[in-house]
Amino acid sequence: MHLPPNATPFERPLEQVAFHRTELSVILSLYGRMVAAGEWRDYGISHQRDVAVFSVFRRTAEVPLYRIEKRPKLRNKQGIYAVIGTGGQVLKRGSELRAVLRVLERKLIRAVDLD
């Protein structure tokens, strides 16, 4: 970030973590398949200073079923992406978004299974 030398702290742009277009494409592809299967019905996106969160809901008024988080500060430790369940348990964490989302794709296979 390049700032003029005389910029005050109030003139500096706020830094936020956000999902990139390619990341959102991967997430929304999975979301669309889960909506088609009748598992998910709504989502919300929030961008904060240290984390970007894509929350998935079964119904709008409920707590999220899953949260897909992007935390760049964890890039060299546990991985930048995580899928977190309703109770706050980490279901999968890693550096590759597609690999992390596979934990949710398994649930899609069960939802469509015709046993």
From TrEMBL:
Pfam families: DUF2794 (PF10984). InterPro entries: DUF2794. It comes from the Bacteria. This is DUF2794 domain-containing protein. It comes from Sulfitobacter pacificus.
